[in-house]
Amino acid sequence: MQIGIANTLPAHQVHLFQARRAGSFKYNQSPLNPSTVISSSASSPATISAPDCTKRHLANLDKLLQKETPNSRSNRLDSIPKVPRPDNGAAPSGLASRGRNFLEGLNLARIWPEMKAAAEEMSPRHLNRLHRLLSMTAEYSPRNSLACRWRDYHGGNDWKGMLDPLDENLRREVVRYGEFVQAAYHAFNSDPATEADEAPLPVRVALPDRSYKVTKSLYATSSVGLPKWVDEVAPDLGWMTQRTSWVGYVAVCDDRREIQRMGRRDIVIALRGTSTCLEWAENMRAGLVPMEDESSSSSPQAQTQTQPKVECGFQSLYKTEGAHVASLAQSVVQEIKRLMEQYKGETLSITVTGHSLGAALSLLVADELSSCSPDVPPVAVFSFGSPRVGNRAFGKRLTGKSVKVLRIVNNQDVITKVPGLPMVDELDDDNHPLAYSHVGTELRVDTRMSPYLKPNADVACCHDLEAYLHLVDGFLASNCPFRANAKRSLVKLLNEQRGNVKQLYTSKAQALSLKFERQGLAATGCLPSPSSS
C-alpha cells in the first residue's frame, strides 16, 4: 500500500506522508494561507522542503506586500486615512491589514483619475438619488414667499447680486417660466395644422402651474409664402406651407394664495420657438431693418443709420396680419389692455418668456407693451437660447423704456451667436447691416458642467429647452460644479436627448423604466404646480 502511494505522489508529498505515519509531524496553519500546512519536527526542524515554484511564489508575494522598516511604514501610514474597525470592535487580522494597507498605498485615484468619479457615480447614495430623479416621487423644494422682494426677482435692479451665485428663489422662478414655454410647445405639437380658409379654433393648453389660467391664444403670420403648386404637388403637407401658426398664449395668475406669495398678480406671455417651414424661412432673413414706428417717423433721428433696427424675419412674424387673425403685435397689446382694465387697482406685473424664435419675439413684445399705456405694469423678459434680435440702438431703446431682460445662455449653444458675423463684432461698427447686439443681463450656463450630459453634446441638445432647464436647475455659480441636490427629474431629458446622455445613466434609466412598467407606473418630467406639491 505504501509503495502504491509513493508511486502516485510527488516527492515532497511522499515525505509528508512518511513523517505523518512516523508521528514526527505537527500541523500548523500557514500565516499566508490557512488552508495549507507546514511541518515541524522534534528531531529535525525542516524535514520537508518546498518545491522551487512554492519558494518563488512566496518570494513574489513578499515583494508584492512590500515589507518595510517600522519607521518607513509608520511614515507612509500617517498619510493614509484611518479605516474604521468592524462593527464588533475587533482589530483586523494581520493578513487583512497588510492587504488593505497595500491597496491604500497604491493610491488608485492618482493612478486612475476616473476611478474616483466612477466610484462616486456608482455609490449607493448616488444611485438612490438617480432613482429619485428618474421616478415620479421626487421631492421638490417649496416655493418661498417673494412678496417683499418681488421687484428684485422681476428685474427691478437688473438682478444684481442674484446670478453668480444664483439665488435659490430666482432659480425656481426661471425654471417655472421655462415650463410655461414648454406648455406652448406641447400645445402646438398636439395640433400644428391651421386651416387657411377659416378662423382657427381655440387651442387647449395644459399649464404646468394650475394657479394660472389661459386668457388668449396668440398667432404669428409670415409675410412670405411658397408657390401654390407646392400644395398641389403635396396636398398632405399643406401644414408646412401655412402662413399663420399658433405661437403662444397669454395667461394670468388666478389663485389668491399664489398672488399673495408672489406679491402681485402676474401676467405671463409664453412664446414657442421655430416649428414650421415658413418660420425657418423668416429666420433666414437676417438683414437689419428699421422698426416700423421709427421708419415712419420724419424726425432727423429716424433718417440716420443708427436708429433702432431689428431682424427682418422677426419683425415680419411679429407685425404681419393673418387672413382670419390679427397680428401678434395687435393681439398681445389688445389682451394686455383688457387685463389691465379688468384688474385695475391691483398690483400687476408682465412677464414675457420664450425660447429660440419665441425669445426673439419676446423682446419685440416687451418693447411694444412697455409703451402701450401710461400706467403699464413693470415688464420683464426671461429668454432661453435667444438669437440676436437687433442693433445696439434697439438695446438702448429697451433700456430707456425700463424693460428688464434676463437672457439665459448655454455656452455651447450656437443659436445665441447668430445672426451676424464675428468679424462685424470686431469692427464695432453700428452702421453695418449685420451689426447685431445682445440685450439685457446674461445668466450663462454650460453643458459641460452637467454630470449627466456628454461634454461633446450636439447642437440640438445644447439648444434644447429641457437641457436649458436642467442646467439652470443644477447651476450654483460660474466657479462651482453642478449642485448635488438638484431636484429636476431627468425623465424628459432622457426621452428627448438620450443620445447625448452618458451611457451610465441611460442604462440605469432603462433598468428603472422596466421596473416602472412592471409596476404599472409612469414617470413624469414636469415639476408640479404649487397646489399639487
UniProtKB/TrEMBL annotation:
Keyword RNA-binding: no
Domain Fungal lipase-type: 268-420
Region (Disordered): 65-96
Organism: Linum tenue
GO terms, biological process: lipid catabolic process
Keyword Flavoprotein attached: no
Highest taxon listed in the record's lineage: Eukaryota
Localisation: Plastid, Chloroplast
Name of the protein in question: Fungal lipase-type domain-containing protein
InterPro entries named in the record: AB_hydrolase_fold (IPR029058), Fungal_lipase-type (IPR002921)
